Amino acid sequence: MLYFMVFGESLLNDAVTIVCYNIANEFKELESITFFDCFMGFVSFLVVSLGGLAIGLILGFLTSFITKYTEHVRVVEPVFLFGLSYLSYILGELFHLSGIIALISCGLVQTHYAMRNLSYKSNACIMYFTKVISNIMESMIFIILGVMLVNERGWFWSDWHPLFSVFSIVLCVVVRFIVVYFLTYIINRYTGGVRHVSFQEQFIIAYGGLRGAISFSLAFMIDDSVEEKNTLLAATYMVILFTVFIQGSSIKLLVKYLKIQLAGKNDRFRLFLEFNHGMIDNLSQGIEDLCGYKNYSWINICSRWSRRFLRPFLQKNYTEDKKGNKLAEMDKALNLRDQMIASSSTNSFSRQATIDEMAESGINVDLIDDEEGLCIQNHKDPHRVEEIEKATDELTKDSAHIRALMNNPFEEVDFEHFR
């Protein structure tokens, strides 16, 4: 849970920082700043943020609705997912709204709704492509940062102001601790105890505020006509180096010292834990009904509204409030993850051309998905997996033979072999 708090906070911080930076640039052009200007700046902040949020939500819902009907054209699912998410960023910037907030909100909606409509192959494609692009972009950011630091070495030292840089580092750290402790106090005090953030977790959140690509990019975007640009860039470099190398290298030791609970590998008991949590939730609801108290938090209201209206409209084959749905979804997610880990990539690539040819020739795609489901059910048995892979390899050697089998299967295929 701590990971999601730190990741979500840093993600939204970047978006809000860029919006505030653009508003400050507009204020710079004014001769004098009045109260009305500050009010309009606040209104502009809301319009830019909420406008980007609206664009992202609309395109996220559009992605979910489209993928609801892509059962027979699975190959376009990743294209729609990445294409519409990038379109949300483009539209946000085109209308001078927050493209990053639009991209974040679009991704959240796609994860919550659209990903449930995708096939196993589309999920695997999206997962691996996202990891590759993420690693490449992270590496390029720090490569560019290092190259710029070396190339601008002359002015970096000539315009470097040591006292200003030290004050920048101290203020960044102190202000972050103040803001984090203040906001987490409000969360713990007024959110009804949904998730209490401990003092140790607050310290890690405050200490883990690393500066990098966003701060460097915003400092580098300052116009060259500004005399203090080099001094600001030098201070930004010092803040980045301090937070990345000093705070980043010591965060692991602090996590161990403060005894932060790490994510355990409870995969063998996840279904039991989910059942246990569900039983406790139902018991708590019964006690609330007896006491006349009902938790009408925004989270519960939005969750009920989503289950009643959004999911039936955006997800295929969705049914509400069936017994065992939660456990079935958890088991399906675990099996999908295990299959993605255990399945052989070599055999999948060697059969991909044949599978695509079968789908294009009009063979029902569900027949292909059935083979995946069979692997999911039997992947834990090594002998069963080996038997299925051997039989599948024999069947997929010749596409003409496959087509003949599909047209007249009962004469050629011994189904007892697959039972």
TrEMBL record:
<feature type="transmembrane region" description="Helical">
    <location>
        <begin position="38"/>
        <end position="66"/>
    </location>
</feature>
<feature type="domain" description="Cation/H+ exchanger transmembrane">
    <location>
        <begin position="5"/>
        <end position="256"/>
    </location>
</feature>
<keyword id="KW-0472">Membrane</keyword>
<dbReference type="GO" id="GO:0005886">
    <property type="term" value="C:plasma membrane"/>
</dbReference>
<keyword id="KW-0813">Transport</keyword>
<keyword id="KW-1133">Transmembrane helix</keyword>
<keyword id="KW-0739">Sodium transport</keyword>
<dbReference type="GO" id="GO:0015386">
    <property type="term" value="F:potassium:proton antiporter activity"/>
</dbReference>
<comment type="similarity">
    <text>Belongs to the monovalent cation:proton antiporter 1 (CPA1) transporter (TC 2.A.36) family.</text>
</comment>
<feature type="transmembrane region" description="Helical">
    <location>
        <begin position="204"/>
        <end position="222"/>
    </location>
</feature>
<keyword id="KW-0812">Transmembrane</keyword>
<keyword id="KW-0406">Ion transport</keyword>
<dbReference type="GO" id="GO:0015385">
    <property type="term" value="F:sodium:proton antiporter activity"/>
</dbReference>
<dbReference type="Pfam" id="PF00999">
    <property type="entry name" value="Na_H_Exchanger"/>
</dbReference>
<keyword id="KW-0050">Antiport</keyword>
<dbReference type="InterPro" id="IPR006153">
    <property type="entry name" value="Cation/H_exchanger_TM"/>
</dbReference>
<feature type="transmembrane region" description="Helical">
    <location>
        <begin position="128"/>
        <end position="150"/>
    </location>
</feature>
<protein>
    <recommendedName>
        <fullName>Sodium/hydrogen exchanger</fullName>
    </recommendedName>
</protein>
<dbReference type="InterPro" id="IPR004709">
    <property type="entry name" value="NaH_exchanger"/>
</dbReference>
<feature type="transmembrane region" description="Helical">
    <location>
        <begin position="86"/>
        <end position="108"/>
    </location>
</feature>
<feature type="transmembrane region" description="Helical">
    <location>
        <begin position="162"/>
        <end position="183"/>
    </location>
</feature>
<dbReference type="GO" id="GO:0051453">
    <property type="term" value="P:regulation of intracellular pH"/>
</dbReference>
<feature type="transmembrane region" description="Helical">
    <location>
        <begin position="234"/>
        <end position="255"/>
    </location>
</feature>
<keyword id="KW-0915">Sodium</keyword>
<dbReference type="InterPro" id="IPR018422">
    <property type="entry name" value="Cation/H_exchanger_CPA1"/>
</dbReference>
<dbReference type="GO" id="GO:0098719">
    <property type="term" value="P:sodium ion import across plasma membrane"/>
</dbReference>
